[in-house]
Design goal:
about 55% helix, HATPase_dom, 6-stranded mixed β-sheet, single chain, alpha/beta, Heat Shock Protein 90, about 400 residues, Rossmann fold
């Protein structure tokens, strides 16, 4: 049975197997402005709860089928927003304490005073209102704290991303300044050194032409070889700092890689290096100087092979999307210490016993010439991976 008032002060479900109690309590509460639902046992009461979700339940302790304590526990578990006041008989104060521990908000001894009943109900509903509001505020607080924590996390990520981007930009600026300084230096050196170098070469050739002493001829040949070596260093220095003469043509990266790997096949076979080509998507041809592109792979393959003279795997990944070509060149060498990774593109920096330290500087200059990027993706005890990105421009 349901009794509804036009301006309800609240909703109450009465569960009691005594019809007199149901009728009397319903009349009292309806007259005080409450919407009232009734049930003669706990099972019917659960159905009323599921349908109407009243704010308060007046629940009798002594009932057939399901006793009040069992019903109370189920109500508190299934309908936590519904508060419960228990009806108990006189002399059951110990049971009342047990009921309060089980989740009842209050208890009323039968027979009860109508005014006392209404006051108890009003008190419990006030407490319920405050507690539910507090719960809402706590949930809102937790939600806001969670949002603030998420905002802070996103802000930290953005700051970190911007900081890393700024560091990369600063590193690129520094690297560009180094290459520019190297350009000024090498241009001057080429002019000042090559003139006396040519004279040394000429005089050595003259000495050689008029000499019959085998020991002296051997010395002259060594002089000429050293002249050639100095000239080669000057050429590499110029290549690293500025673009030499170039000739553009249609270049296919997959073919350049294949050709360069074929050149190094004797070394890879000698050192038992397994070569893996992972050509996922072959990019279209593009305008470039083929010898420059070959230099990129020549220098990177040389470094990889040098690190794997006891065997290993050289992997070349080639891929592209609508915007850029991606190249990943990996070896399974011993890797580089972190302090060296920061310096490997610096001119003259090398860890090899023999070498000019200009190979990767040349690679950097060439990659930048084509508006690309090169970086060390990883370098540890499992090996080193270089990543190159070249913008995919229409040919």
């Amino acid at each position: 049975m349901t009794m509804v008032t036009s301006d309800s002060k609240g909703s109450v479900l009465i569960i009691d197997d005594e019809k007199v109690i149901l009728d009397l309590t319903s009349i009292v509460l309806v007259n005080r402005g409450y919407t009232v639902f009734t049930a003669s046992d706990a099972m019917m009461g659960m159905k009323e709860l599921e349908e109407h979700h009243p704010q308060l339940v007046l629940l009798d302790y002594m009932m057939p089928v399901m006793d009040g304590l069992t019903a109370l526990k189920e109500i508190r578990q299934r309908f936590p927003d519904t508060y419960v006041i228990m009806f108990t008989g006189k002399g059951n104060e110990e049971i009342a304490v047990e009921l309060m521990k089980a989740g009842a908000s209050d208890y009323i001894l039968k027979p009860f005073n109508n005014q006392d009943l209404v006051e108890r109900i009003e008190s419990v509903l006030r407490i319920r209102k405050v507690e539910l509001r507090n719960r809402e505020l706590m949930e809102e607080r937790e939600r806001l704290l969670s949002e603030i924590a998420e905002w802070n996390r996103q802000l930290e990520e953005r700051v970190m991303e911007k900081s890393e981007a700024l560091q990369r930009a600063q590193a690129e600026i520094v690297q560009s300044e180094k290459l520019a300084s190297l350009g000024y230096l090498s241009a001057g050196m080429a002019h000042e050194i090559r003139n006396p170098l040519n004279s040394i070469n000429l005089f050595a050739q003259l000495l050689k032409s008029g000499c019959d002493d085998h020991e002296k001829l051997d010395f002259i040949d060594k002089i000429l070889k050293e002249v050639e070596r100095v000239d080669e260093i000057m050429r590499k220095l110029l290549d690293a700092s500025k673009r030499p003469r170039f000739q553009l043509s249609e270049v296919r990266l997959d073919r350049v890689i294949d050709a360069t790997l074929e050149v190094f096949r004797p070394q890879t076979e000698l050192y038992s290096i397994n070569v893996v080509k992972d050509f996922r998507h072959i990019p279209p041809s593009f305008q470039a100087d083929q010898s420059e592109i070959e230099q990129i792979f020549t220098n990177l393959f040389l470094n990889a092979i040098h690190e794997m003279q006891q065997g290993g795997t050289l992997t070349v990944l080639l891929d592209h999307d609508d915007q850029a070509v991606t190249l990943r060149i990996s070896d399974t060498g011993k890797g580089m210490p972190p302090e060296n990774v920061q310096k490997i593109f610096d001119p003259f920096f090398t860890t090899k016993s023999s070498g000019s330290g200009l190979g990767l500087a040349v690679v950097l200059r060439i990659v930048k010439t084509y508006h690309g990027k090169i970086a060390v993706a990883k370098s540890d005890e499992t090996g080193t991976t270089f990543v190159i990105e070249l913008p995919l421009l229409p040919s």
